[in-house]
Design goal:
Strand content of chain A: 5-15%
Largest interface: A-B, 36 and 37 residues
CATH superfamily of the largest domain in chain A: NAD(P)-binding Rossmann-like Domain
Strand order of the largest sheet of chain A: 3-2-1-4-5-6-7
Number of strands of chain A: 7
Largest sheet of chain A: 7 strands, parallel
CATH class of the largest domain in chain A: Alpha Beta
Number of helices of chain B: 9
Shape of chain B: globular
Shape of chain A: globular
Order of helices and strands of chain A: EHEHEHEHEHEHHHE
Number of helices of chain A: 8
Structural class of chain A: alpha/beta
Radius of gyration of chain A: 18 Å
Oligomer: heterodimer
Distance between the termini of chain B: 42 Å
Helix content of chain A: 40-55%
Largest sheet of chain B: 7 strands, parallel
Distance between the termini of chain A: 39 Å
Strand order of the largest sheet of chain B: 3-2-1-4-5-6-7
């Protein structure tokens, strides 16, 4: 059977692991070739291990096992010049660009008024400005292709629903909503669609770490995954603690495929009823 | 290849034509059997021709052509007892229920408005949707889970539709459907039943593409402007809404509940 994205090319940031890797594999299964970036080193202020070169190599291996092409690079989305140079070259090699997934992001739980400036600034630089740089480096290629296209920016339930200890994260994720909506309006005449996805907790390395567990269980000194899941389950209306990366990939697949050809400017919530 | 809804049964109101028929056919393509309901008769305050028994027969023919089973009944969503009987008979024949689509609706908007439009559109587009969920709710709980999609509109998000009794009623009913959805999403989540709304912009169906509605839209130039999409497309096809619903009712969206899902070519964002 022919895939839903046969002949298309997708650019994905944060593709070394977690949701980004899942998106790369899901889109490749449907026939897309992939342009993948990830920082692949420790990001300052982040209290869990960020992706490493071997993670990105694993994404490359899994996409190639599906007989799709993938071009990858270790790039920090805060570095526009590096992003642009890489995307320009990769699009030339693969011949076109149709889809952009601005997915890279960090989580640094911190007290809203007590956090240091580096924590605040790094969050905004990566989770908000980094997404803008991602789009700035890539969307002109979709416009130039003149075939239309689809952009999905990964926001969060945190853009809609307030949780203590996430002011910088939530501000960045909420900023992405209007970035997407303004771009949706500007790019609609080019038949380029722009939407945000809003996941609740997903079982990835960004979430499965003690500092995040403590956000959910401030009552415990060293909360475990079980302690976290007990609290997370009460946030979701559906009886689950965390979603799997593929649940977000499936939502994105709908948005970027022809099935979502008239969906633009929307906030696409995948949150097990968390906002209710 | 196995369909995404193999072995499932879907209950669809307003299934004789337009979006409802498209949903029946699209879900059947993915393996679902169908319980199809439609009034197949005229409501006096509606100025365009409503569905007929021949329309419902055509839906049956198209679903059966895909080797799926369909239990079709002429019933009025305003009549709880008749709707319950039709639903129960369908479940008895097809063996289970997994999916409920509250799709039936009318748009009593014309250049010659009547006071009756208000009550008729609320009865069909809001109370009818409530009845649709109520007749199926317990069976979905007994099934151990399921998915409900209620068809709202861009008029369920924005104050559009004009100031006739029918236009105001349409917008009020479509907003009301969102309240129903959010409440059901809360109360049914513990049973693993998901509830969402879809919000289409103008779709190429007999409810929109008819002389009376086109006159109504053209009477006021701001109305025509208000109906302009952001993407360069005048009108969506029914299958575009069916594809959104397919996503929502399939396992791809197993953790999506309580959301308002626009399929509107950027209409809402543009306003």
């Amino acid at each position: 059977m022919t895939g839903k994205l046969e002949g298309k090319v997708a650019f994905i940031t944060g593709a070394a692991r977690g949701q980004g890797r899942s998106h790369a594999i899901t889109l490749a299964k449907e026939g897309a070739d992939i342009i993948a970036v990830d920082i692949c080193k420790q990001v300052e202020t982040v209290p869990y291990d960020t992706a490493r070169p071997e993670d990105l190599a694993e994404t490359v291996r899994q996409v190639e096992a599906l007989d799709r092409r993938i071009i990858s690079a270790e790039i920090d989305i805060r570095d526009f010049a590096a992003l642009k140079q890489f995307v320009d070259g990769a699009v030339a090699d693969l011949g076109r660009l149709d889809i952009v997934l601005a997915n890279a992001g960090i989580s640094t739980p911190a007290d809203s008024l007590g956090m240091d400036e580096e924590t605040w600034n790094t969050m905004i630089d990566v989770n908000l400005t980094g997404q803008w740089k991602t789009l700035r480096a890539s969307v002109p290629h979709i416009i130039a292709g003149d075939r239309g296209g689809s952009v999905v920016i990964t926001s969060s339930l945190a853009a809609i629903y307030a949780n203590p200890g996430t002011a910088h994260y939530s501000a960045a994720k909420a900023g992405l909503v209007m970035l997407a909506k303004v771009l949706a309006k500007e790019l609609a005449p080019h038949s380029i669609r722009v939407n945000t996805v809003h996941p609740t907790t997903v079982a990835t390395d960004m979430i499965l770490n003690e500092p995040t567990y403590k956000l959910f269980r401030p009552d415990l000194e060293h909360p475990t995954r079980e302690d976290f899941e007990e609290a997370a389950r009460t946030l979701n209306r559906l009886p689950i603690a965390a979603m799997e990366p593929v649940d977000i990939s499936n939502a994105i697949l709908y948005l970027v495929s022809d099935e979502g050809r008239y969906v633009t400017g929307t906030t696409h919530v995948v949150d097990a009823g968390g906002q209710l | 290849m196995t369909g995404r809804l193999e072995g499932k049964v879907a209950f669809i109101t307003g299934a004789a034509r337009g979006q409802g028929r498209s949903h029946a056919v699209r879900l059947a393509q993915e393996g679902a059997d169908i319980i199809a309901i439609d009034l197949c008769a005229q409501i006096d305050s509606v100025s365009y021709p409503m569905s007929t028994p021949d329309d419902l027969a055509e839906t049956v023919k198209q679903v059966e052509a895909m080797d799926r089973r369909i239990h079709a009944v002429q019933a009025d969503v305003r009549d709880r007892a008749a709707l319950q009987a039709a639903f129960d008979a369908g479940v008895a024949e097809l063996g289970r229920i997994d999916i409920v689509l509250g799709n039936a609706g009318i748009a009593p908007m014309s250049l010659h408005p009547t006071p009756e439009e208000w009550q008729d559109v609320l009865d069909v587009n809001l109370t009818g949707v409530y009845h649709t969920v109520e007749v199926a709710k317990q069976a979905l709980i007994d099934n151990g889970g399921g998915a409900i999609v209620l068809t709202s509109s861009t008029a369920g998000i924005n104050g559009i539709g004009g100031d006739t009794p029918g236009g105001l009623g349409y917008t009020a009913a479509k907003h009301g459907v969102v309240g129903l959805m959010r409440s059901y999403a809360n109360t049914l989540a513990k049973h693993s039943i998901r509830v969402n709304t879809v919000h289409p912009t103008g779709v190429n169906t007999p409810m929109v593409v008819n002389e009376s509605m086109q006159e109504f839209l053209q009477q006021d130039p701001t109305m025509g402007q208000a109906m302009m999409n952001a993407l360069p497309v005048d009108m969506l096809e029914p299958v575009d809404i069916s594809n959104a619903i397919l996503f929502l009712v399939s396992d791809d969206a197993r953790y999506v509940t309580g959301v308002t899902f626009p399929v509107d070519a950027g209409f809402t964002n543009k306003r």
